[in-house]
Amino acid sequence: MIELRPLDSHGRTRNERIDAVHHLAFSAFQDLRRIDWGDLVTLNHNLLPPRGEIRAQPIDGVDSLAIVRNGVIAHSGIFGPKCRAVTGEVMLVSPGRGMEHGYFNPGIRAADYFELRIRADALPDRPMHRTALFPTRSQVDEAVVIASPWPEDRGALRLHGSTRVHAARIRRRSEVSFRFDPGAMAYAVVLAGRLRVGDLTLGPGDGCAMRHERALTLRALDAAHILVVETVSL
């Protein structure tokens, strides 16, 4: 089963502090059909203005992953501004127990980033943070695991549940395939460009929810960036 979730079907929060698009139920967007997707509990596309802040709040039981498209974001909480990510980087914050977590934009331009919260089975005793790179131009047209709990996914940021996060940078008219474990669910979101999935066309901000699919093949109509979250079945 593949379900297209177009950009205009998502929730939206827009005020002087943030402009956010919600793929899953979040804040005032409480569509019962969009509550979680497996262990993926939050997927937001955020624009945070210069010096803007999402105040730190208690966050337990999840890993927090941020993919920065433009600008810079920093952790608002115990790690302080040294915990940050810039354009093209991915930041993982694993909160441990009772930690507060938020985001702050220390830059002079808006920060554009995707925020994922992924349910964890067991968190570390102490909070931790790490950064890595989104697939670079040297990794074009290949599926790259950027976060995973499994040691065989070398170089990936270490999650604490049963979810694997893939990403790809795809050239125009090229294809990339993702293979999933039996019984997994998956959610894809287009970060840039246009893609074909079977008979479906996806543009920037569109999502695609999948269940009982063993593989996903994407054909780029333009140069495109894609994020694919493979998670456990409900």
UniProtKB/TrEMBL annotation:
Domain Quercetin 2,3-dioxygenase C-terminal cupin: 145-230
InterPro entries per record: Pirin, Quercetinase_C, RmlC-like_jellyroll, RmlC_Cupin_sf
A Pfam family matched in the record: Pirin_C_2
Membrane-spanning intervals of the chain: none
Domain of life: Bacteria
UniProt cross-references to PANTHER family, sorted A to Z: QUERCETIN 2,3-DIOXYGENASE (PTHR43212:SF3)
Official protein name in the record: Quercetin 2,3-dioxygenase C-terminal cupin domain-containing protein
UniProt lineage: Bacteria, Pseudomonadati, Pseudomonadota, Alphaproteobacteria, Sphingomonadales
